[in-house]
Design goal:
Length: about 500
């Protein structure tokens, strides 16, 4: 029998797991067809009344809706104001797991003590002018040095359109993201390729990168060598001789840094995939590990339940400041603060930004918020809990920022589907069966099973955790790795010379 799903006992709307025609559904009269992922009123709603989903308001009714009526853009609008003004009141964090319950994965121990899940050589170019040479270096070196089952997991170049003719924050953002990638533990060694006349000079960029193991980094300007591809391949050969000595060893899962991201969300994302990832965050942080969350504009309207979990007043103030600074960014560009959700989100059943945000933050579970870091900055190790990273909601920009924050893997939930991949394994978690069946080449895990009768959330969480540990251990590749989908996108705010 077709049914409606009430997400929270206080909700006055319910979601259709599949398209429901007009008629009686489990004792509820549905007045009109409700598309899959969309909402139906559970009782009469008056003009000006707040619609409740996830136990929180997601908008204001603009015209009367009868019980069983379709609640969407035609009768629901955002109720958000301009600024976030909250007072810190400590919330409830996730329960801690017992030490004996911490599983292990087969990872790499770097000389500085950090854990890694891949043993790769990365090529980072300071400027777009050497994008093609850096790609050719990576391709030639990989053909020569990477073999199935070998010690080197991959050799990859991450190109971008920036590094010259940039000013102010834009140049700073480029340096921060690229330096974060250079410092990433999955990059066992790095070749930095410059041109020689760009704004992002090797000298200034290396200053941003900071101190690194000299054995594991090489750099040169293409203008200063006879053949930059030959010189690059030779540099990678030197690095490979060092990197190939690394061996996987058992490491506690508490050393993992997992990033939570959503893209192409639909009406099921906040019911299946996002809460599933939230339960992963709770397990990981319960063991002492770190979960990372960003997409700041998709925190708008959900600040109260998320920020109530900040561990200190200082962390709370940093989180509120991060949100308000983002709203100022919109105003500086004369753009509406609440120009969200996207057309695809609305087709999938999401109506307002509050609804999207409250579904989005499900990915953070109930983990305590222990740190807030800026764009391009890395999560501080050893703190555990949830780390909030300043970055926009755009999939490429935010997922890249999560990589630069030091995440070993991005858990990417989606209801509409996307092939996007970033430098680290990007596990795609479908919110519904239809997507998982339609795009098996993109999807790593089907969270739609949580809508199946009798589904056990704990069992499904355990299944996903096993996939994550298999990927972390190198026993399995994420679909983006299999497909060769690895790219970076850098946030641009200002002018170009």
């Amino acid at each position: 029998m077709k049914r409606l799903v009430q997400v929270h006992p206080d909700d006055n709307v319910a979601v259709a797991p599949e398209a429901i025609p007009a008629g009686t559904v489990e004792g509820t009269l549905v007045l009109e067809e409700i598309p899959a992922g969309h909402k139906a009123a559970l009782r009469d709603l008056a003009t000006g009344e707040r619609v409740i989903k996830y136990g929180f308001p997601i908008g204001i009714v603009t015209e009367p809706v009868k019980a069983g009526g379709h609640v969407h853009s035609q009768n629901l609008k955002t109720g958000l104001g301009e600024d976030t003004a909250l007072e810190w009141q400590p919330g409830v964090s996730a329960p801690s797991a017992k030490v004996g319950e911490v599983p292990v994965f087969m990872g790499y121990r770097r000389p500085d003590g950090r854990a890694a899940t891949r043993n790769e050589i990365w090529i980072i170019n300071t400027v777009a002018c050497v994008n093609v040479p850096s790609q050719r270096i990576a391709e030639a070196a990989a053909r020569e040095l990477v073999v199935p089952g070998g010690a080197i997991d991959g050799i990859h170049a991450f190109t971008h359109p920036y590094g010259c003719s940039q000013l102010g924050d834009d140049l700073g953002f480029t340096r921060k993201i690229l330096s974060g990638l250079v410092r990433h533990p999955n990059a066992a060694a790095v070749l930095i390729l410059g041109l020689g006349c760009e704004n992002n000079t090797l000298k200034s960029f290396l200053g941003e990168v900071g101190t690194l193991d000299p054995e594991r980094i090489r750099w040169f300007n293409a203008q200063e060598v006879l053949d930059e591809v030959e010189a690059g391949v030779e540099a990678v050969r030197e690095l490979a001789a060092i990197v190939s000595k690394a061996k996987r060893e058992p490491l506690p899962a508490s050393e993992l840094v997992l990033a939570m991201k959503c893209g192409g969300s639909d009406g099921f994302s906040g019911i299946t995939a996002n809460p599933l990832v939230g339960r992963i965050a709770d397990r990981l942080t319960g063991w002492g590990g770190t979960a990372v969350l960003t997409e700041v504009p998709e925190m708008f309207g959900a600040e109260a339940p998320l920020f109530s979990r900040c561990d200190t007043g200082e962390t709370f103030d940093q989180a509120v400041a991060m949100v308000n600074e983002f709203k100022d960014y919109f105003r500086r560009h004369d753009e509406p603060i609440y120009e969200n959700p996207s057309p695809g989100n609305k087709d999938g059943g999401i109506t307002t930004l509050e609804e999207k945000s409250l579904g989005c933050i499900q990915k953070g579970g109930r983990a305590p918020v222990k740190q807030v870091v800026g764009y391009g900055e890395q999560a501080r190790q050893g703190l555990g809990g949830l780390c909030l990273v300043q970055a926009p909601g755009n999939d490429g920009v935010s997922a890249t920022a999560l990589s630069a924050s030091g995440a070993h893997c991005v858990l990417f939930t989606t209801g509409r589907g996307t092939p996007l991949g970033v430098p680290v394994p990007t596990l795609k978690i479908a919110s519904n069966h239809a997507l998982a069946e339609r795009k098996p080449g993109w999807i790593d895990f089907d969270a739609g099973q949580l809508l199946d009768p009798g589904a056990d959330p704990d069992e499904v969480t355990g299944e996903l955790m096993k996939v994550i540990l298999d990927v972390a251990s190198g026993r399995r590749q994420a679909r983006n790795e299999v497909n060769g989908f690895r790219e970076i996108t850098i946030w641009k705010q200002g002018v170009t010379l």
